[in-house]
């Protein structure tokens, strides 16, 4: 099932998407609510919504303004250094244990919303990533059972301010600038994708310029391994987001010069079978002016 959270005529709802058309599930089944959390927390709601979508009236996907799939994700955990060639281009050694960091809610925004280049740096980079939305939570989840805990998969752009990322051994500042992590717009349930969302083409681009191009089958730690590893130290909650790391081709590693994102550009992240997450790049001062005018 392909799901989209967004607004039509100012009202936020959950939609089931088929091609260029979508069914308003919130209108058909009120207990669905205005984001995915009700369906994540109760499979019966998901099943009822899927049944209601059959033969229902539709709206055009182009008329829906995307919102975050989960308005306030409980926890956002990100995996770094998960593609060997990306590790090498960054000058790191291949680790025995995944590099893990967290993002705060202020750092994320919906697909289609501006990605903000901060006033203090011009080194805004892109990172195409597969993202998991956790369905059933738990602790000490086995790798064999881990995929049963996935509600769906979406697209993530882990926008990174590289000079701030490299200020310390901890990556927190560079990974948590406001409005730098784009999520969505579509969430696809596991039954519509290969096992563990493996073997999918993943790409980033600006216009005709291809920045990254790889395959999720090249990840060092699979979705199942990652869930098992994270649940060793923390209890995963329904609605948690897990970002699976980026392939090679990031801007800071481009030769002979780094390739930073610039205001006026639109960066697109696409994962086969899931969709395109597009973000216009704006300067922080311009973004602040727009916010005041709204």
From TrEMBL:
Residues 75-281 form the Fumarylacetoacetase-like C-terminal domain. It comes from the Bacteria. One of its GO terms (biological process) is carboxylic acid metabolic process. GO terms for molecular function: isomerase activity; metal ion binding. The keyword Metal-binding applies. The keyword Metal-binding applies. Keywords: Metal-binding. Pfam families: FAA_hydrolase. Belongs to the FAH family. PANTHER family: FUMARYLACETOACETATE HYDROLASE DOMAIN-CONTAINING PROTEIN 2A, FUMARYLACETOACETATE HYDROLASE DOMAIN-CONTAINING PROTEIN 2A-RELATED. This is 2-keto-4-pentenoate hydratase/2-oxohepta-3-ene-1,7-dioic acid hydratase (Catechol pathway). It comes from Ruegeria marina. The lineage of its organism: Bacteria, Pseudomonadati, Pseudomonadota, Alphaproteobacteria, Rhodobacterales.
């Amino acid at each position: 099932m392909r799901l989209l959270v967004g607004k039509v005529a100012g009202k936020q709802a959950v939609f089931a998407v088929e091609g260029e058309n979508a069914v308003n599930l919130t209108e058909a089944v009120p207990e669905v609510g205005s984001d995915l959390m009700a369906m994540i927390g109760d499979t019966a709601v998901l099943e009822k919504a899927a049944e209601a979508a059959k033969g229902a009236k539709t709206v055009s996907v182009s008329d829906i303004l995307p919102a975050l799939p989960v308005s306030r994700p409980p926890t956002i955990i990100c995996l770094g250094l998960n593609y060997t060639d990306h590790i090498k281009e960054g000058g790191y050694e291949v680790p025995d244990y995944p590099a893990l960091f967290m993002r705060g809610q202020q750092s994320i925004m919906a697909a289609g919303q501006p990605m903000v280049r901060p006033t203090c740096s011009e080194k805004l980079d892109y990172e195409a990533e597969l993202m998991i939305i956790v369905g059933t939570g738990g602790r000490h989840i086995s790798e064999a059972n881990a995929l049963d805990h996935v509600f769906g998969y979406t697209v993530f752009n882990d926008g990174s301010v590289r000079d701030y990322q490299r200020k310390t051994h901890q990556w927190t500042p560079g990974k948590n600038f406001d409005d730098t992590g784009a999520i969505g717009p579509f969430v696809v349930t596991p039954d519509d994708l290969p096992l563990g969302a493996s073997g999918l083409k993943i790409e980033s681009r600006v216009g005709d310029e291809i920045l990254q191009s790889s395959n999720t089958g090249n990840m060092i730690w699979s979705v199942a391994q990652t869930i098992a590893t994270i649940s060793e130290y923390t209890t995963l909650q329904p609605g948690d987001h897990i970002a699976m790391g980026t392939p090679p081709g990031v801007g800071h590693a481009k030769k002979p010069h780094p390739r930073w994102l610039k205001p006026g550009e639109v960066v697109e992240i696409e994962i086969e079978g899931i969709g395109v997450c597009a973000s216009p790049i704006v300067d922080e001062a311009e973004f602040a002016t727009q916010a005041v005018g709204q």
